[in-house]
Amino acid sequence: MALVLALCAAAAPEARVTAIVADRVVTVTGGVVENGVILIKNGKIEKIAPRLTPPQGAEVVDAGTLAAYPGMVLARTRIGLGAGQGSVVETLWPYGREYDRIRACGFTALGLVPPGGELVSGLGAVARPLARAKDEIVLGKSEFLCMSFSAGYARTLPGLLRQEGQSPLVQAVQGRLPAVITASDATSVLLLVRILGEHRNLRRYVVPEGDVVNALPVLCQGKVPCIVRATLESRPITFFEHNVAATLARAGAPVCLVPAADSVAAIETFRFDAARLIAGGLPEDAALRAVTINPAAALGIDWRLGSLEAGKDADVVLVDGELLDPRARIRAVYIAGEKVYACEPADAGGAAGAAEEK
């Protein structure tokens, strides 16, 4: 027996331990840890504490004056997906250069969505922006329901929400599956909010489109969780620009920010757009949550991603300033404790320098 135990112990792989020492660790949900150390074991955060002494044998990453933030989460995108009508996993092709550039922007998780147009569009999934096999980058237990609602479905949806069975829609109504629902215009938003008010267990985020400014009073009153573009919206037939994200956040509604367009170019200017919203009244803490823990919650993976906490994946972004300050450089990105992007000060030329370390 002793020999068997000894052989088993010898065969067990050694734990991969890394300690990231940063000037500040911005956890998002637990405040800021000055002179913080993030202790990572096998891709998970084991502990965060000030001036923590790394265990013997750990790889120590001395980030100097850099700040550590959680990786950003993109709530919805079709980048990397083909044009087919299959599931997002079936049409996923992650081997283009797009995911290199997305990592360099500080995003470590993507909510992949199926084509819209149908009331029940299908299931989305969360993936890592890595050029690897699908089973390596698509997170387990990360499915979420995608729906596209317009006023024409006002009579259809209530009946569907009352049906029984084990369909994804029923699971969403029961609170077992998160839902991301796109509403095509302000009228659709008003109808959707009224219908969903009867289903308190439904964990949903609404994507208001079209003349969203006209729907703001209802969204704010109900504190409806929303996914909005990082742009200033114009009122119809006027030149007045409205900071939708700021209005929702000040009303207490959870907000997720996505780029102005579903493109890599828009992702590369995303921090500039977010900074403009902050300058226009969006509180900085709300903006930070809107790119980290809130989108993770929208996709139902806030138990795993979206903040720096013990037990979560070690998705870390090292920045020489504030994460949403476009003047600050992203120096390194870690996904599950593995460095997947590095930009040295001498060659800090922007996102074009993205390179996954093997």
- Please state roughly what percent of the residues sit in beta strands, choosing from under 5%, 5-15%, 15-25%, 25-35%, 35-45% or over 45%: 25-35%
Distance between the termini: 40 Å
Number of domains: 2
Mean pLDDT, all residues: 91
Structural class: alpha/beta
Low-confidence stretches: 3-11, 346-358
Shape descriptor reads globular
Strand order of the largest sheet: 3-2-7-18-19-20
Radius of gyration computed on alpha carbons: 21 Å
Helix proportion: 10-25%
Largest sheet: 6 strands, mixed
Query: How many β-strand runs?
Result: 20
- Total helices: the number is 13
Structure description:
The structure is a single chain. The chain is of the alpha/beta class. The chain has helices at 2-11, 88-91, 98-104, 134-137, 156-161, 168-173, 186-196, 216-221, 244-250, 264-268, 270-279, 284-289, 293-298; strands at 17-21, 24-26, 32-34, 36-41, 44-50, 59-62, 67-70, 72-77, 107-112, 120-127, 144-149, 179-183, 204-208, 226-229, 233-234, 241-242, 255-258, 316-319, 330-335, 338-342. The chain has a six-stranded mixed sheet with strand order 3-2-7-18-19-20, with helices on one face. Strands 8-9-10-11-12-13 form a six-stranded mixed sheet. Strands 5-4-1-6 form a four-stranded mixed sheet, with no helix packed on it. Strand 2 and strand 3 (32-34) form a beta hairpin.
